Amino acid sequence: MKKLNDQLEDFASIPVPKNIRYSGLSIAMVTAVMVFGASSLSLGAQIGLSLGFIDSIIAFLIGGFFLSILAYIVGMIGVRSRLSSYVLIKIIFGKNGAILLNISLAIALLGWYGISMDIFSASLNQLMRSIFDVNVPNYLIEIIGGFLMTYSAVKGFKLLESLSTWITPLLIILTASLGYKAFAIWGNRLSQEALDANPMTVTMAADAVIGAFVLGAILMSDYSRFARTTKDVATASFMPYFLLSTLAYTVAFFAAVATNETDIIRIMNALGLGLAAVFLIFLSSWIVNGINLYSATLSLSSIYMKAKQWHMALLTGTLATIAALMNILEQLTSFLILLTAIFTPVGGILIADYYLLRKKKNYSIDELGYAPSLNYRAIISCIIAVSFSFLPTNNTQLTFGLPALDSLLIAGFLYYMMTLLVNRIKER
After folding, report:
1. Most buried residue, 82, 83, 195, 259, by most Cβ within 10 Å?
2. What pLDDT shows up at residue 196?
3. Regarding the domain delimited by 20-427, which CATH topology (the fold level of the hierarchy) does it fall under?
4. Of 115, 209, 226, whose CA–CA distance to 160 is shortest?
5. What are the distances in angstroms from CA 428 to CA 307, 338, 376, 385?
6. pLDDT at 14 (0 to 100)
7. 22 beta partners
8. Could you tell me the end-to-end alpha-carbon distance of the chain, in angstroms, rounded to an integer?
9. For residue 218, what is the enclosing H or E element?
């Protein structure tokens, strides 16, 4: 048993040792899988039909640049401290504050896992019927998929990195073939303006791009803690969130205009790429949900630090798959969106604490021993920032127009100012 525990150790609650390091490209391959998922490509298609080519590209670039900068700034904290984001949250928010946040985050991640699993099984079933005239029960697809995804989370970052090294290039090839097919067959339509009857604004589109991956950017330290150098953090941040995401969204735009569809499954079927769609859905869902389970496991492991990480991964994967089989998670979508929104301010507080208050002084695992029970300043900043981000943009002149950016900056600013004020009062 000890040998098994050693093999499955992924350093959820301790610094990553010096002998375990990965290149920036390897880390980028893991996080890049998300941008080639069905939901991401469908988002790109929807934005494309709503805005037209130029405005869509602007939205893709704004969203991707914001995510890359955020991932890099947070990732630098991870590579210097070698600690997971959940341990960092515990140091900053206090023991009880971290319990509240980490449980909320785990619920959000597991909830999205279940919803993604439902979409995965329904899409794969649809493709199997249309291509092979075979009806595979959704529950069977979810059981098999749940096993693979849970196994990936149990094995941890090492297996996710190994799988992504092979799967991400395949997804890039599949996406490139989608773009080529669309451009070659219906290239004369690509210059058309927005076709959607309900167009969105560039700001709305950019915020949608940010919202799709902001949680991954905020949790970048979970992956950057394995990086060799700070340069590897830059590669792991800008390659997936800026370069590859812009490529994927642009391809989705071409395909959407060519077919006048926003659903990536229908798009690929219309372009004669049904079999490729099967591989894209299966491979991307496998890794994306494996990452969701892995992150949820890290979150819960930071609360129950005596539990083995692989035990926690096995438990969470099993429970999330059962919840998906029971189809109870679709009723919780709005609740999950609210939970996810909480963590953009967390990123702002983490950045303010490390770069402004600590002046880049590295976090240490020893700080857990004297972390406060609850950091009220951090909690209050989060609540105010989340509330502010839900205000209608056109009702205030105090925002940047991007709710994710607004909440991040507001939380960081409030936390910084309140901490300075408290420190000055203590000095008197």
Report:
1. 83
2. 56
3. Hydantoin permease (1.10.4160)
4. 226
5. 44, 40, 21, 30
6. 85
7. 227
8. 56
9. helix 202-218
